[in-house]
Amino acid sequence: MRKRGTLILVTLAVLVALVAACGAPVTEEPTEVPTEPPAEEEEDLGTVVIGTNAEYPPFEYVDEQGDITGFDVDLMEAIAQEAGFEYEFVNTRWDGIFVALASGEFDAVISAATITEEREEMVDFSDPYFNAGQRIVVQAGDMEIEGPEDLAGKRVGVQLGTTGDIWLTDETEAEVVRYDENTLAFQALANGDVDAAVADGPTAVDIIKANPEMELKILPGTYTDEQYGIAVNPDRQDVLEAINQGLAAVRDSGQYEEIYDQYFGTE
Amino acid sequence: MNVKSREARAGRILPFEIPWGSVPWWAVILAVVGVFVGWSVLTSEAYLDALSFIVDGVSLTLQVTIVSYLIGLVVGLIFGLMRVSDNPVFYAASTLYVEVMRGVPLLVIILYMGFVVTPRLREATGGQIDLQGVPAAILGIAICYGAYMAEVYRGGIESIEHGQMEAARSLGMNYMQAMRHVILPQAIRRVLPPLGNNLISMLKDSSLISVIALNDLLQTGRLYVSRTYRAFEGYNSVALLYLTMTLFLSFVVRIVERKAAIE
Lengths: 267, 263
Known about the structure:
With 267 residues, chain A is α/β, with parallel strands linked by helices.
């Protein structure tokens, strides 16, 4: 009896080790993030395990100290504080992140994930928290172009084959000038070869930040929908509710704006 | 060693006589394949769709190729003559040009033309000279290929026996006259095949101009693929159109070579 017990234990241990070895990528490192004690807790969610692929700055990346940080991470911290739950981040690979989520390895995933119908079949998504849609960039001194209707007849640079290219071609009257890369379109704008450029918001902000001498500015509007959502394991409706409630509170309290400006402010 | 005729050599290599040896077999094979490909393309809705979209890029590709080839021929001749010149300034200047232009990738030259030279020139001249777009692309390709062509011309000129120059000079011609009436007419015949080669590789290299956002043949093909997600139809149509154009250009080059040959 006792012997068999040991045998089962050893077998189990080996199995667990095997599963861990197969399933866990080398980069996996749980990061404890100290959170405030739950403020007004109705039900205990336990520690919510949140998966992310920290290789996509500025949304999520590993900083010089080895900590996972970024827009998504700060936003999650604020949401957890508002909704009053504890959580830990797990840095994992992007491939199969939704399969891992659906299979219960994580309770939620925040990783600059666009909400798509395909993914919604597998997991649930929170309310959108970021629109990475197409935005218009013009020279800093340009007062003429204020929105898509002002692009009519103007030369507008864009990267060939992107959502921005399709949006410009189908939805505006602009003369579309197609470059191989976003950076070249922005350089052409700085040189005055084109009157405006179009790219997705995060990329546009990154390029403008990296090239302050180009003297470009980004217009406030976002013209296509590429909404990022927090993916939640369909079995954890409680977590989904808590996240949505927390997200709404973060938006209401103005914390969202603060975090946004910290990562995407061009001023 | 006795020089064998083409037929005799062919007879030696192959253990049998080629029937109708004078028939250009490569052309026959190409024509048969061409008919087959043409038939399958014309009977396929998807290919007709792709071709009719992509064919728009042909005119820009041809325009850029032909104009930059003509400029390259002239630039190459000038620098080729400078490369064989005894004047140390000419020699140094042309060597610098050739080595720099051959050493920098054409893609980078076109980028410089589009993103550095054009805006600077526009600023310097107050908008009087604006190369933006096609002129920048043409100049970029022309000055790059000019360097290769200069070397082709130099090779041709140096292949003419030195005695001819001396003979011409002793007849009272000056250096330029001897070059123009004696050396160059012979040299140019010898460099026609490599110059034809340059024309064809230039046609294909002209696809690099898409880096300054020009809708040439390849760019139009990529646009088609990105719109329809039909990669095979898109790139096959691009290949077919390029092949048709290079075959046509080879044909022209052959005619020129034949016309220039001494009977």
